[in-house]
Design a protein that fits this description.
This protein has 499 residues and is mainly alpha-helical. It contains 21 helices and two strands. A hairpin with a 2-residue loop joins β1 and β2.
Length: 499
C-alpha cells in the first residue's frame, strides 16, 4: 500500500470539503447570526490542510483496492474531524467528542444529535448540519470522483468502497460518468422536494434543510420536535414519499428519468416496498387497537399517517419522527426495532443491513428448510431470474453476522458505561444502522448529549463502520493490509466489492 497515494487523494477530498463550507458560510452571512466567522475559519483550516496533503504527496500509480479502502476510511474520519470545527469554534458544543459525534452523524447520515435545543442554534450551524447530510448522502468521495476525472479508472476503487450495498451498479462505462449521473438525479430530487415543501407553506430555510436531511436519509431537523413540529398532513405525506424514494436504489431513479420504469421488475424493490407498506399498516392497526388514536375518521387517518411515516423513516434509516413512538404500545416499538435491521435498498443513501441481504437470508433460510424435507433435492437461491452464487451467499451471511456482532458489542460497551439495557441496545442499533433515534433514553424525543466522551467515541466508531459497510473499515485492522508488497493493479479489473 502506498501512503502517498492514500493521502494525496484524501488531501484532495479535504480540499473539496473545505470549499463546500463556503455555502453555509454564505447562509450565515445572510442571517448575520454570528456563525459566519467560525465557518470561514473552518473553511481556511480544512482547505489549507487538504492542499498541504495534496501537494505534499504524489499519486504515483493506479489506486489499488487496499488503498481505496484506506482512502475511504481516512477520508470519512478526517472530514468528520474538520466537520466538527464549526461546532467547536462557534461554541455550540463544549468538547471535541460531542462535536465530532455531531459532525460524523451528519456525514454518515445517522442523524443522532447531541443538541437538546436545536432551535436555539444559529442558522449557519443549522444549515451546516443539514448540508453535511446532503454531502454524505450520496458520498463526498463519490462526488470527489465525479469532479476529479484525473483519477480515471482508479476511481472505481473509491466508488466500490463507498457506495452502500452489496454490488454498486455502473450505469455508464466510466466511473466519473456514473457518479455524475447519480448526483444529477440526486440534485433534481432535491429541487423537486424543496418546491413541494414550499407549496405546502414551509419557509425556504426549513424546506432546504429538511430536503437535505430527507434525501440523504439523515434525519437532522431545524425543529426540536422534528417533523412533528409541522402538523400538516401535506408536509408529512411529502416527507413519507421522499423518505421512501431515498431508500430506493438510485439506479432505478436514473432509469426512470431516462424512460425505463424498472421498479416493478426489481425483486429487491418489491421486497423493500412490501416491508414499508406492510409495516406501516401493521403499526397503524396496532396503535388503533391498543393505543390512543381512536376509531374516528381523523384518528384512523392519523394512525395510518404516523404508521407509514415511521415505517418509511426507520426502514430507510432516515430517522425523522412524526410522533413520539416511545409513547406507543410495546408491540409497535418492537416492530420499529425490527425495522432497524432492514435498511434501504442497495445503491440508496440508506444504511442498515440492506433489503437485498435480508431478502436473500430469508430465501436461504426457506431453502434450508426445504432441504430437510428433500435431502437429495437441488435447490438454488434466486433473486428474480438470477441465481445467487454460494460465495455471494457466504459473503452475505458473514456480513450480517459481523453486523449483529458489532451491534451486540456496541450494546455491551454501552452497558459497561452504565446505560440500561434498552438504551444500550437502542443506541448501538441506531448508530450501526445510521438511523439516529433508538429506544430508551435515545428515543424519538431524546438526544445523545447526555452521554460521556467515551460513549460518544464508541458510537462515532459504530456510525463510521456502519456507514462504510463494515468490511471497508475492519480490513484496515488486518496486518496484511499494510504489507509493503503492492497487490495487482485494478486497471481494467471487473471484480466487485465483497458483499
Amino acid at each position: 500500500m502506498s501512503l502517498g497515494n492514500v493521502f494525496n487523494v484524501v488531501g484532495l477530498i479535504l480540499a473539496f470539503f473545505g470549499l463546500s463550507m463556503l455555502i453555509p458560510w454564505g447562509v450565515a452571512l445572510g442571517y448575520g447570526d454570528g456563525a459566519a466567522l467560525p465557518l470561514f475559519i473552518s473553511f481556511v483550516l480544512t482547505l489549507g490542510t487538504g492542499l498541504s496533503l495534496f501537494y505534499g504527496t504524489r499519486l504515483d500509480s493506479d489506486i489499488t483496492a487496499r488503498e481505496g479502502y484506506a482512502i475511504v476510511t481516512f477520508g470519512w474520519a478526517l472530514t468528520g474531524f474538520f466537520g466538527s470545527l464549526p461546532y467547536l469554534l462557534s461554541g455550540t458544543v463544549g468538547g471535541f467528542a460531542p462535536a465530532y459525534f455531531e459532525a460524523l452523524s451528519g456525514l454518515t447520515t445517522t442523524g443522532a444529535t447531541v443538541f437538546s435545543d436545536i432551535e436555539a442554534l444559529p442558522h449557519g450551524i443549522l444549515f451546516w448540519r443539514s448540508f453535511t447530510h446532503w454531502i454524505g448522502g450520496m458520498g463526498i468521495i463519490v462526488l470527489a470522483v465525479a469532479v476529479l476525472p484525473y483519477l480515471g479508472v482508479g476511481g472505481m476503487q473509491l466508488f466500490r468502497a463507498e457506495v452502500p450495498g452489496p454490488t454498486p451498479e455502473r450505469l455508464r462505462p466510466r466511473i466519473t460518468q456514473t457518479a455524475k449521473l447519480l448526483w444529477l438525479v440526486y440534485l433534481g430530487m432535491t429541487v423537486l422536494q424543496t418546491v413541494l415543501y414550499l407549496l405546502g407553506g414551509m419557509d425556504l430555510f426549513d424546506s432546504v434543510n429538511h430536503t437535505f436531511s430527507t434525501l440523504a436519509t439523515g434525519g437532522f431537523s431545524t425543529r426540536n420536535a422534528s417533523m412533528a413540529a409541522f402538523d400538516s398532513p401535506y408536509i408529512q405525506y411529502v416527507t413519507i414519499v421522499f423518505m421512501y424514494l431515498a431508500g430506493l436504489n438510485f439506479a432505478l431513479h436514473f432509469r426512470a428519468v431516462t424512460g425505463r420504469l424498472d421498479y416493478f421488475k426489481d425483486t429487491e424493490w418489491r421486497f423493500f416496498t412490501g416491508v414499508v407498506v406492510g409495516a406501516g399498516v401493521i403499526l397503524a392497526l396496532v396503535n388503533l387497537g391498543m393505543g390512543g388514536y381512536g376509531w374516528t375518521g381523523s384518528g384512523v387517518e392519523r394512525a395510518l399517517r404516523d404508521g407509514f411515516f415511521q415505517s418509511a423513516s426507520i426502514t430507510s434509516t432516515t430517522g425523522f419522527v412524526s410522533a413520539d413512538f416511545e409513547a406507543w404500545v410495546p408491540a409497535a416499538q418492537m416492530i420499529l426495532f425490527a425495522l432497524m435491521f432492514v435498511g434501504g435498498m442497495a445503491g440508496s443513501t440508506g444504511g442498515g443491513v440492506k433489503a437485498v441481504r435480508v431478502l436473500l437470508l430469508l430465501k436461504q433460510s426457506a431453502l434450508e428448510i426445504r432441504k430437510h424435507l428433500h435431502p437429495k433435492g437441488v435447490f438454488l437461491t434466486r433473486v428474480g431470474r438470477q441465481v445467487v452464487r454460494e460465495d455471494v451467499m457466504a459473503n452475505i451471511v458473514g456480513f450480517v453476522l459481523l453486523y449483529l456482532l458489532l451491534t451486540l458489542a456496541g450494546a455491551v460497551a454501552m452497558g459497561l458505561l452504565g446505560m440500561d439495557v434498552l438504551t444500550a441496545i437502542g443506541a448501538s442499533a441506531a448508530t450501526v444502522g445510521n438511523i439516529g433515534p433508538g429506544l430508551g433514553d435515545v428515543g424519538a424525543t431524546d438526544n445523545y448529549g447526555w452521554m460521556s466522551a467515551p460513549a460518544l467515541g464508541i458510537l462515532s466508531f459504530l456510525m463510521l463502520v456502519g456507514r462504510l459497510e463494515i468490511y471497508t473499515v475492519l480490513l484496515l485492522f488486518l496486518p496484511e493490509t499494510w504489507r509493503r508488497r503492492r497487490p495487482r493493479s485494478f486497471r481494467g479489473s471487473t471484480s466487485r466489492h465483497p458483499a
